[in-house]
Each structure stands twice: as C-alpha cells, then as structure tokens.
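Work Package 3 committed the consortium to producing structural models of liganded targets before the mid-term review. Because experimental data for this complex are still outstanding, the team generated a predictive model from sequence and the ligand definition alone, so that downstream docking and mutagenesis planning could proceed in parallel. The input record is reproduced below exactly as it was submitted to the modelling pipeline, together with the SMILES string for guanosine-5'-triphosphate.
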Amino acid sequence: MAALDQRDNAMSDQDPLPPLEWDPQGVQIQGFSAGLYQIEWLLVTIVMLYLVIMGLPDEGGLGVLTATFGYFGFSLLASRLYFFGEKQRWLLALHTWAMIVFITWFLYNTEGVTGPLASLYLLAVVTSALTLGVLVTMLEVAAIAACQLLLLHLLGTHILTTANLAPVGTSIVALLIVGYLTAALVDAIHVSNRTLLKMASRDALTGLFNRRAFDDLAKPIHLMARRSGRPYCVIAMDMDGLKRINDTKGHGAGDQAIRGLTQRLVECKRSSDVLARYGGDEFVMLLPDTNAAGGRNMMQRLVNAVKDDKLSISVGVASYPEQGESLEELLDHADNAMYFSKASGGNRVSIRAVA
Ligand SMILES: Nc1nc2c(ncn2[C@@H]2O[C@H](COP(=O)(O)OP(=O)(O)OP(=O)(O)O)[C@@H](O)[C@H]2O)c(=O)[nH]1
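The resulting structure, written out as tokens with the ligand in place, is given here.
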C-alpha cells in the first residue's frame, strides 16, 4: 500500500507528456504545404511553356533544360517529405531560396532581367510572404536585387547608369510592396485566427479550456491510452454552495470564488493534465498516466487546499480502463461519483465503484 502511494505521488509530481496546446501558425503552415507545390508547379509550367514557344536558347539550352527538370524533381521529392515538426519553416525557406536560384539561372540563360519573365521572382516573394514573415521576405527581396544586379553585370550591361538601373529598381519596388503587404496581411490573419481560436476554445471568466476544447483534447489521450494500455483518470468537480455565495455576497464574489478555485486547480495540476470549465460551477479534468488512487490522492489534496480559501467542492473520479471503456462512459461515471460526493454532504472525493 505504501509502495502504491509512493508511486501515485511520483506520478502526480512529474510531467509524462508535453503541455497540450494548439498551434494555429503550425496548422496554417501545414495547410500551406499543398499551396506551395501548386506555386512551384506553376513556375515549372510557365518555364516549360516559354521553352516550347520560344525554343531552347542557343547557348546554355541544355543547362536550362537540366535545371528545369532538376527543379521539378526537387519539388516532387520535397512533396513526398514529411513536412510536420519544427524544421518546417526551414524547409519552406529552402524552397523559396531554391526558387530564386532557379529563376536567376533561367533568366541568365534566356532574356535577362529586363524581360517579362523577371516577374517570376514574384512567386518566390509571395511564397515567402505567406509563410515566413516580413523580415525573411525583405531579406529575400534584397537577395533578388543582388541577383538582378549580378545578372546585369554577367550579361555585360554597365550597371552604374540610371537607364540600366531603372528596370531593376522598378521591379524591386514592386516586389517590396507585394512582399511587405502580403506578409503584413498574413500576420494580421494569424493574430485574428489566434484570437478566434482562443474565443472558441477558452472560457471567458477563467481562461480555462471550455467543453468543446476538452472533448477535442481528451479524444487523442483516450486513444493513446487504449493503444498503450496505460491508465488515465477523469475527474468531475462541482463547487458546493455557489448559489449561496451569489445570493449573500453578490455575483462578483461568486465569480471571485470560481477564479480562486481555478487558481488552486492550475497550481495542483501537471502541465499535461487537461483542465476545463464545463459550465457554471462544474469543472472536468483528465489526468493522463494516472490510476484511480493517484487521481483520488491529488483531488483530496485539492479539497484540503480549497478549504483554506473557505471554499468547498464535490469531486468524482473514474479511471480507465477499470471503470469504463469509453470517454463518455468515464465522464458519466465521474459525474455520478461527484453527485454521490454532493449527496454525502459535499467537500469530499468519491471514486466510481467497480461493478
Ligand atoms: N458568480 C457566478 N455564478 C454562476 C456562474 N455560472 C453559474 N453561476 C451560478 O451558480 C449557481 C449554481 O447553482 P447550483 O447548481 O445550485 O450550485 P450550488 O449553489 O453550488 O449548489 P450545489 O451544487 O448543490 O452545492 C447558480 O445560481 C448559477 O446562476 C458564474 O460564472 N459566475
């Protein structure tokens, strides 16, 4: 028994899983991966059409063809690569730099920087602005300006004359405007997405997850536990006497009591535990990698802690897999155990009895 308690305490003091949070920017970048290949294949299609209509250049024709197929192969191969994870931004940056190098090589072998195909650089700038932010995009525009000057020099044009610099200047200003505005707009969309996601997933009074977010976050934990055979605990909590606090001390004091309980809950939970306000004075919690005894011990500590704040809660615990096979079943059982605590006078923790 002592050994079991020791193990339970150890469980509640460590963090077996990383904190559960959503990353809207990551989701957006993942979504952009498909758009990236469309931009790359558009670039290859325009280049191929140019070569079909205008024919291969007399000098460097083979080099252009090899570079085009090489670039197409790179894009095809990269589309098969796993794009998730923290290296994703670097992979996207690599794609845009590859695009700039390919376009520069193509222009060098065909019409130089003064023809209409110089606007192909727009594809790289837009790709970067959509995914990599203002700073990286501005750096890429600077790199494109350097490439264009180098092209002028390599193609034998004297670059230090106003007439020769004017077309490069015009195209760079256009790239700057498009790149800056697109990146700024995307940043604004990120901010509003984050705000919307927060509004849709958080409870306004406490900042905790709401019911919808809890359901979304609990499902993968249940599936993981089912696969690994590890236990987890579902906790249902309800404050005792909130109506009395509201009626005697006012709604503000009731709100303060809810916030006070939230503070205690946040202090006692592990970062991998999922805590949500289900509504009113009801809270739910999911404790991964924790058995019923561990959940009960943690909740008993919480019941003792909130006494210091002159608050009282009724708690019900149900654990996977002993007390239920599905999340819905466990939530029901935890709820019933919580009502049992309440019916027994509140201020206590009950575990759903194994049938
Ligand atoms: N201040 C405040 N009160 C709330 C909030 N949400 C719900 N309530 C009130 O909390 C009270 C909950 O009432 P009950 O469900 O009877 O709960 P209780 O008074 O804690 O009684 P028992 O649960 O039986 O112990 C209701 O009067 C609700 O109007 C809130 O966000 N802030």
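Reviewers should note the following from the model. Residues 162-201 form the longest helix (40 residues). These observations will guide the Year 2 experiments.
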